Amino acid sequence: MASKCGVGWKPIVVGLLTALDAEIAKQPASERASFRVVTIKQKLGALRVYMASWTEVMQAAIDAAEAASLRTCEVCSRPGKRRVCQGLWMTRCRTHRRRKRVP
Asked: Is 8 helix (H, G, I), strand (E, B) or coil?
């Protein structure tokens, strides 16, 4: 799995992965391997999660995480909003609103 997003979204990603693991565990053993996260990244200022296969419950968890990312600074986890920063969409708090790179 590839992951390309800032440390500020780590709590969101960890929460999402915990929810996905719990939902995968509910699936028939023979099908569990098909439910895997392919990529986690930032795109247009929001968290994006791509899976090989998913259920409606998994999609709802992904949607909630993506919505939370639009309210959370990707740099520090403080409340933020999506902004254009140096020509790119990013979700940042007031402190990091001009910072292009994410640690």
From this structure: helix
